[in-house]
UniProtKB/TrEMBL annotation:
Residues 7-182 form the Ketoreductase domain. This is NAD(P)-binding protein. One of its GO terms (molecular function) is oxidoreductase activity. The lineage of its organism: Eukaryota, Fungi, Dikarya, Ascomycota, Pezizomycotina. Keywords: NADP, Oxidoreductase. Belongs to the short-chain dehydrogenases/reductases (SDR) family. It holds the Pfam family adh_short_C2. It comes from Rhizodiscina lignyota.
Amino acid sequence: MKSLQGKVAIVTGGARGIGAAIAEELAKRGVAKIAITYLSNTSAAEGVVSKLQALGATAIAIKADVGDLASAPTVIENALDALGTKELDILVNNAASTLLRPLDDIKIDDFHAVFNTNIGGPLFLIQAALPRIRRGGRIINIGSRQSRHATGSPMFLYAASKAGQEHLTRNLAFQYAAPLGITVNTVMPGPTDTDELRATGMAEALKNAATAEKRLGTVDDIAQIVAFVAEDGARWINGHTLNATGGAIMF
């Protein structure tokens, strides 16, 4: 039997990059029903769904803006209804808003957009999902090394929001999830080879300078760690930030 046989999962931001790799790895480990959310790239989302189905999972894609906080209950309900279940085992909060903008150019709307997506989105999705998550379930937030490590890039709002997300993880794990037999953890990627990173123009510099192996992480590097946290063998890890940076930072 596969390690996650028969589980039900929701992965936000699952149409590409790290989110798509996480969804695929969960399916490889036996997750039976998977919903991914996506913001705009319908064709990419459909491609991921096809891959998940080829791996034997029942899979759907739901168009949703995680930063629209009022929509969180609807996202959870629609996902579970479409999958034909009332219960959930794994929630991966991967969708994020990344803003590279000098301090002088940041507007109030930028603040709300980044914080709504990176903190508000996970918070209200967890609020909506928690009554549906079975005992032994997993909530996994995807963080960033920016929450711990100033890099000189103009990612002030993103870094601050991810730091807040880490503290949200710890508080939820202690106060709410643990009594229900559910764990809440953050997986913190370092520089990872994604379309988003390449678009910043910083990929080569990070490859040469940021990690112990002198390479960028792959989306599979991160997906393997997330899938491990979802397994029963990780049941005693709770309220923790797992450093998935390849040595870019050490703590």
